UniProtKB/TrEMBL annotation:
<feature type="region of interest" description="Disordered">
    <location>
        <begin position="157"/>
        <end position="190"/>
    </location>
</feature>
<dbReference type="Pfam" id="PF02631">
    <property type="entry name" value="RecX_HTH2"/>
</dbReference>
<dbReference type="GO" id="GO:0006282">
    <property type="term" value="P:regulation of DNA repair"/>
</dbReference>
<dbReference type="InterPro" id="IPR036388">
    <property type="entry name" value="WH-like_DNA-bd_sf"/>
</dbReference>
<dbReference type="Pfam" id="PF21981">
    <property type="entry name" value="RecX_HTH3"/>
</dbReference>
<keyword id="KW-0963">Cytoplasm</keyword>
<dbReference type="GO" id="GO:0005737">
    <property type="term" value="C:cytoplasm"/>
</dbReference>
<feature type="compositionally biased region" description="Low complexity">
    <location>
        <begin position="13"/>
        <end position="22"/>
    </location>
</feature>
<comment type="similarity">
    <text>Belongs to the RecX family.</text>
</comment>
<feature type="compositionally biased region" description="Polar residues">
    <location>
        <begin position="179"/>
        <end position="190"/>
    </location>
</feature>
<feature type="domain" description="RecX third three-helical">
    <location>
        <begin position="122"/>
        <end position="165"/>
    </location>
</feature>
<feature type="compositionally biased region" description="Basic and acidic residues">
    <location>
        <begin position="1"/>
        <end position="12"/>
    </location>
</feature>
<dbReference type="InterPro" id="IPR053925">
    <property type="entry name" value="RecX_HTH_3rd"/>
</dbReference>
<dbReference type="InterPro" id="IPR003783">
    <property type="entry name" value="Regulatory_RecX"/>
</dbReference>
<feature type="region of interest" description="Disordered">
    <location>
        <begin position="1"/>
        <end position="23"/>
    </location>
</feature>
<feature type="domain" description="RecX second three-helical">
    <location>
        <begin position="76"/>
        <end position="114"/>
    </location>
</feature>
<comment type="function">
    <text>Modulates RecA activity.</text>
</comment>
């Protein structure tokens, strides 16, 4: 089928205009936020206040909605902390993860518990991050400084970064590499 230059296509029939959807209630908005990820009470308050003010409500209306959701178990500060630890601890050091928890408005006791959990694994997490990013010890002082800055920017403590760099250097030394265990050594066969 050939089209002529002056041939015009017939317009499609237009769909009927939809009526605008009414705005979500504060509870509906809160549930929408919570369905995406865990939110702390402080985060939800911050997100819901502009909508409440636009609808002519006040801070007490938002507080009532949040109280109701907390009573039903939809808001849990402990779950928020657990979620952040699960998502972020594998890539970040203690300082950065704890800063994120504080920014979410979590209570000090929950932040302290998270700090205790993180402290036990910081060096192992720091080494894993270093190995993924670099994988080999620095060749010179400038490269060492660059690697250390990267680790510090991720929130790992100076002591942990120093231990990671020392471990990387020691493992790179000939004769210090972990030796393969023979089957005789492993099973005690003679």
């Amino acid at each position: 089928m050939k089209f002529e230059a002056n041939e015009v296509k017939a317009p499609r029939s237009e769909a009927p205009a939809r009526a605008p959807r009414p705005g979500l209630s504060l509870k509906g908005r809160a549930l929408r936020y919570l369905s995406a990820r865990e939110h702390s009470r402080a985060e939800l308050m911050t997100k819901l206040l502009p909508h409440a003010r636009a609808a002519g409500d006040d801070e007490q209306a938002v507080a009532r909605v949040l109280d109701e959701l907390a009573a039903k178990g939809f808001i849990s500060e402990a779950r928020v902390a657990e979620s952040v630890l699960h998502r972020r601890a594998g890539r970040l050091g203690n300082a950065r993860v704890l800063q994120e928890l504080r920014a979410k408005g979590l209570p000090d006791d929950i932040v302290r518990e998270a700090a205790e959990q993180l402290q036990a694994t910081e060096e192992a997490r720091a080494y894993a991050v270093w190995a993924r990013k670099f994988g080999r010890p620095p060749a010179d002082a400038a490269e060492r400084a660059r690697q250390m800055r990267f680790m510090a920017s991720r929130g790992f403590s100076g002591a942990s970064v120093q231990r990671v760099m020392r471990r990387a250097r020691d493992e790179a030394q000939p004769g210090n590499a972990p030796s393969a265990v023979s089957s005789q050594d492993e099973f005690g066969d003679d």
